[in-house]
Sequence to fold (278 residues):
Amino acid sequence: MRHSMLASACLLASALVGCQQRPPANDQLDAVLWSQTSIEHELIYRQVFADATRQLDVALAHPDWDALPLPPRKLAGLPPAVIVDIDETLLDNIPLNARDIRHNQTYSYDRWNLWVEQAKAQALPGAVAFLQAARQRGVKVYYLTNREHSQVQATVDNLRLRGFPVEGSEQVLAAGTPVGHCEQAGYGKNCRRQWVASQARVLLLAGDSIGDFVQAEHNTLDAQRRAVEPYLGWLGQRWFLLPNPTYGNWYSAPYGDQEDLPMERKRQLKQQALQLQQ
Fold:
């Protein structure tokens, strides 16, 4: 009888847990929650863009000021410009990640492409004011994005809807753009940055990924550190980096960018990448 009662109690407890419909584990939950609900996220964006706005006048006052990691070049006669990333720098796409978490879905390029075409992304705090301030000073804005070249018009529409200064679609340099013969450069932004360098004196760069500033040889922390080492003094002066805890090269580096691996194997490799002691 006692064993029967225990068995019945266990079955009841199991049923109650099942009725509660415990949410499945999702590796992005806390990152998305922080991005959407923390005051710190909002204030970091406002702080970074306020600092970048103040630096515009400093950069304009120095005719030899250059924010590109290139050998010294002739800047005389080149008009001033800034280069900015779009996703998670200017436009907030995290609602798409939030939707995937709610519906227990993995990332889908089809859903991403639909999101881009709908031009629903909202502006991140401080971003519009920064670029409007740049435009008021006669500084041209180049938007370097790893959205596809076929999505340029939808991206222009989204930026304009949120108040960003976009005079023409040629300002949006997407992956695979024919500008500067960059069709074969893939998602690396070096080729596009070099083309902008031929057109303008670049005052500032802003983005949420190291690839928005310089291209490392490999997707490893050591390679990235080597790539940025010569330019550490530019942080907060010529380079303005924003946080993205939701996705990026860092996310896929522990499993070698092998997106076809099972989720459990990816999670295992990410666990192994954690550092318990220096």
Remarks:
- Confidence is low (pLDDT under 50) at residues 1-7.
- DSSP finds eleven helices and seven strands in the chain.
- The radius of gyration is 22 Å.
- The chain has one domain: 25-247.
